[in-house]
Design brief:
By secondary structure, the chain is α+β, with helices and mostly antiparallel strands. It has 3 helices and 18 strands. Helices cover 15% and strands 49% of the residues. Strands 3-10-9-6-7 form a 5-stranded mixed β-sheet.
């Protein structure tokens, strides 16, 4: 009976604790500590561009950025040694245990791969998983995939005379992902990319666009199709005409929402030229701070190489005979 009274008393204390509002707290009687926090799992595709008519390998990174929000000491009768051991064990509540991962197609794209398992994904760690995706020959454009996660997290732990007894709770999460099916023979490609984006700030995206086709592309204009947490504030970019092999750099300005995570996001860039249009994938990285100096060097090298190819192309064009007046 006394144990029941202690449990009810502790339950009342936790419910009234400000850090517990809105959260369901599960605990053992005679706990020395209670942790608020859990796993925070995100995912990103290494290369989101697929090609029609192929069986593609899709590599996905899965990261856990969970953290302990609060460590609440409780008035327990445990020994000092058991209390210290429990405090250390409680910190494992931010790890994802027995993680099961499955990639789901959208009806057009099929994923024949079986689900994959990860024994434990500790906070601050990342794993890479490979899935097979079948892309039909008539597929094109952006497609929505779903990453289905099932895992367990430690919601409490009890320590008695040095013996650790954890309590686990099953959880699940669905993370939406996008891939771009790009037709073969596309005349444009991204030759280089650099972004300087941080949460809650205005940043830039620089994209080196290359004409990899055999024809001149006239009146090339670019529009960045931004989605939350991004908003495009700079409008489109104009590159004019692009000779075969020529590379030019387009600049976009984005506002980044304060809720943006430090991770890679997938955007798209629509390039209009003459009577054609190409949709190019633009992966951007949101980070706490970065520099652009290396990109300018790389972009200069790419533009120089592209210009040399353009000059070479001009030299290959047949020269008109010149007649002198007599």
């Amino acid at each position: 009976m006394s144990g029941l009274r202690i449990s009810l008393c502790l339950a009342a204390m936790l419910f009234l604790y400000p850090g517990a509002f809105g959260a369901e707290l599960i605990f053992f009687a005679d706990d020395s500590y209670k942790v608020i926090g859990g796993p925070d799992i995100s995912a990103a595709i290494l290369s989101p561009v697929l090609f029609p008519g192929d069986v593609e390998a899709l590599r996905i990174s899965i990261s856990n950025s969970g953290r302990v929000e609060e460590l609440i000491p409780l008035p327990a009768n445990s020994s000092k040694e058991d209390g210290e051991l429990e405090m250390a064990e409680e910190l494992m509540s931010v790890d994802a245990q027995n993680l099961s991962v499955r990639l789901q197609g959208d009806g057009t794209l099929r994923v024949p791969s079986d689900q994959q398992r990860v024994d434990v994904l500790p906070s601050g760690s990342t794993v890479w998983l490979d899935f097979t995706v079948f892309v039909p020959a008539n597929a094109s454009g952006w497609h929505d995939l779903a990453l289905l996660l099932d895992y367990e997290r430690q919601v409490d732990v009890s320590v008695t005379d040095g013996m650790v007894s954890p309590l686990y709770q099953p959880e699940n999460r669905t993370i939406p992902l996008q891939v771009l099916v790009e037709g073969s023979g596309a005349p444009l490609r991204i030759a280089g990319l650099k972004s300087t984006l941080s949460p809650g700030k205005r940043g830039t995206v620089l994209a080196a666009i290359e004409n990899c086709g055999p024809e001149i592309l006239h009146n090339c204009t670019l529009w960045l199709e931004a989605a939350p947490p991004f908003s495009d504030v700079g409008g489109g970019a104009s590159l004019g005409g692009l000779l075969p092999g020529e590379i030019r750099v387009a600049k976009f300005t984005l506002d980044v929402g304060e809720d943006a995570r430090v991770q890679e996001y997938q955007l798209a860039c629509a390039v209009h030229f003459g009577d054609g249009e190409v949709l190019l994938p633009i992966p951007v990285l949101v980070e706490m701070g970065s520099g652009l100096s290396w990109f300018y060097i790389a972009a200069a090298a790419l533009v120089l190489g592209g210009s040399m190819l353009a000059i070479f192309y001009r030299n290959l064009r047949p020269q008109r005979p010149r007649f002198k007046a007599r």
